[in-house]
């Protein structure tokens, strides 16, 4: 079990509308300000989706590159770009995300129903992303929406080798309508299946919507790490909207300290994840 807790903030995502949630960071200035606040209260990694001038999700290569540069210059956080994008993004655009040279990228391990939509991740696309990330020196975070995707990851690593950096880190995204539930039982099933992955594999978990707290508590108690943010929940408590991403990070950091596994600094997180300093 790790002695500290890796906290990732996912501040924006591709699904929440700025019109519905004014506190959502969508401009580069808002994103950098959010990143600084979250780093100050315990985040080590930022999982980034960017928005265009219309506040809609985009994979514009120039904006992605500017975003990586700004976050690297103005924070110490590990910058992880989403290669998942929005459900409508074509594979070619999702592959091009790597050209922005992030330290990390997300890599979803299978197709999953996603509310009324389908989040497509063909096997051949997964292999291509895995290989291109290794060639580009980008450390993956394997996103797991259902238990079987861990079996797919074991097969991928067996057939195509370890990722850049040699360390395997997975993130359980729980409670998506169409994916696995955000329950302690599902978390335990996933944590148990991690034993079929290479020795030293680490895991984090996030629960969508009202599953945020149960998943956070289950992950901490199972020796896992945490992801929180407005990509995953915009409600702090029943009837109480999230005020800021830092509010969610601060709560997660408080639980981590109570569990005697305080938040890792970005440099400690780089060491854990095999991200070059
Ligand atoms: N927006 C979802 C369709 C990722 O960032 O890699 C995909 C997602 C996963 O959020
Ligand atoms: Zn995402």
Would you write up a description of this structure?
- The chain is an alpha/beta fold.
- It has one domain (7-273): Aldolase class I (TIM Barrel, Alpha-Beta Barrel), CATH 3.20.20.70.
- It has helices at residues 28-40, 61-74, 91-96, 123-136, 148-160, 184-193, 212-221, 245-258, 266-273; strands spanning 7-9, 45-48, 50-51, 57-58, 78-81, 104-108, 112-114, 117-119, 139-144, 169-174, 202-207, 225-228, 235-237, 240-241.
- Helix 1 (28-40) packs parallel to helix 2 (61-74) and helix 1 packs parallel to helix 8.
- The radius of gyration is 17 Å and the shape is globular.
- The mean pLDDT is 98.
- Residues 13-15, 82-84, 86-87, 106, 108, 114, 119, 143 line the site of (5S)-5-amino-3-OXO-hexanoic acid.
Outline the low-pLDDT stretches: none
The CATH class, by name, is: Alpha Beta
Tally of structural domains: 1
CATH fold label? TIM Barrel
User: Which percent bin holds the helix content?
Assistant: 25-40%
* Discrete helix count: 9
Q: Helices and strands: which structural class? A: alpha/beta
Distance N to C terminus: 23 Å
What is the CATH architecture descriptor?
Alpha-Beta Barrel
Secondary structure tally: strands: 14
Which hetero compounds are present in the coordinates? (5S)-5-amino-3-OXO-hexanoic acid, zinc ion
- The Rg value, from CA coordinates, equals 17 Å
Measured by DSSP, the beta-strand proportion falls in 15-25%
Q: What letter string, H or E per element, gives the SSE order?
A: EHEEEHEHEEEHEHEHEHEEEHH
């Amino acid at each position: 079990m790790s002695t500290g807790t890796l906290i990732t903030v996912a501040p924006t995502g591709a699904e929440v509308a700025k019109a519905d949630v004014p506190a959502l960071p969508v401009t580069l200035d808002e994103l950098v300000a959010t990143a600084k606040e979250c780093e100050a209260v315990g985040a080590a990694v930022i999982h980034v989706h960017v928005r265009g001038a219309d506040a809609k999700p985009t994979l514009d290569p120039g904006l992605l590159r500017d975003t990586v540069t700004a976050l690297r210059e103005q924070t110490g956080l590990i910058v992880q770009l989403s290669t998942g994008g929005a459900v409508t993004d074509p594979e070619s655009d999702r592959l091009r995300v790597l050209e922005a040279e992030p330290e990390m990228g997300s890599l979803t391990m299978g197709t999953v129903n996603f509310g009324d939509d389908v989040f497509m991740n063909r096997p051949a696309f997964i292999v291509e992303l895995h290989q291109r990330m290794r060639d580009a020196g980008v450390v993956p975070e394997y996103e797991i929406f259902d238990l079987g995707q861990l079996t797919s990851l074991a097969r991928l690593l067996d057939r195509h080798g370890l990722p850049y950096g040699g360390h395997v880190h997975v993130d359980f995204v729980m409670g998506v309508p169409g994916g696995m539930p955000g329950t302690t039982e599902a978390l335990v099933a996933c944590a148990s299946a991690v034993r079929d992955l290479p020795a030293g594999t680490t895991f984090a978990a996030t629960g969508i919507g009202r599953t945020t707290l149960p998943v956070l508590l289950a992950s901490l108690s199972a020796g896992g790490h945490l992801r929180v943010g407005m990509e995953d929940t915009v409600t702090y408590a029943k009837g109480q909207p999230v005020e800021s991403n830092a509010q969610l990070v601060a709560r997660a950091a408080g639980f981590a300290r109570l569990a005697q596994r305080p938040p890792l600094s970005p440099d400690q997180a780089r060491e854990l994840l095999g991200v070059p300093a």
